[in-house]
Amino acid sequence: MKTPTHNHAKRDDEITRCVVLFHQVDDMDHWDLMLEFQNKLWTWRLELLPTANQTVLGKRIIDHRIHYLDYEGPVSHNRGTVKRIRSGHYHWGHNSETRFAILQFEQERWNVLLENDNQLAKISIVT
Question: Is 65:40 a contact under the CB 8 Å cutoff?
Fold first, then answer.
């Protein structure tokens, strides 16, 4: 699944939302980072959350339905449960060589650098 390389601009008064969900499923617990884009959620699976000293990799998975921006609870077809651990908004950074998003949560900011045909993302906390 390739993330489009072009950005569709939103009006200045529109907020582009993001969320991090903790997904508990059998013995494969993980976090899902989701960015709102054109009425869907681009999603990356994270094995760990970033810390001030550690960048983590996220693997792109299928787009999710927009309702996960606000949803917590059981996932259909016995695929575990999700709990929102961060929510906020984001905007695209400007750099001619790389594509990145800057996520603003209540008490921290994350950079999400898209790489490898956008299948992988390097995620770090902005200090």
Answer: yes
What is the tens place of the pLDDT at every residue in 28-51? 999 999 999 999 999 999 999 999
Q: How far apart are CA 4 and CA 23, in angstroms?
A: 26
Could you tell me if residue 84 is left (phi over 0), alpha (psi between -120 and 50 degrees) or otherwise beta?
beta
Structure tokens at 35: 């960015």
CA distance 109 to 105: 6
User: Can you give the pTM of this predicted structure?
Assistant: 0.86
Task: Kindly state the tokens that stand for 50.
Answer: 């970033």
Burial bucket for residue 29 (CB in 10 Å: 0-12, 13-18, 19+): exposed
Cα–Cα distance, 26 to 77 (Å, whole number): 13
Domain locations along the chain: 17-126
Q: Residue 9 corresponds to which tokens in the numbers above?
A: 């601009």
Identity (one letter) of the amino acid at 119? Q
Separation between Cα atoms, residue 127 and residue 119, nearest integer Å: 25
**Alpha-carbon distance 19 to 94, whole Å?**
22
Q: How confident is the model at residue 13, as a pLDDT?
A: 45
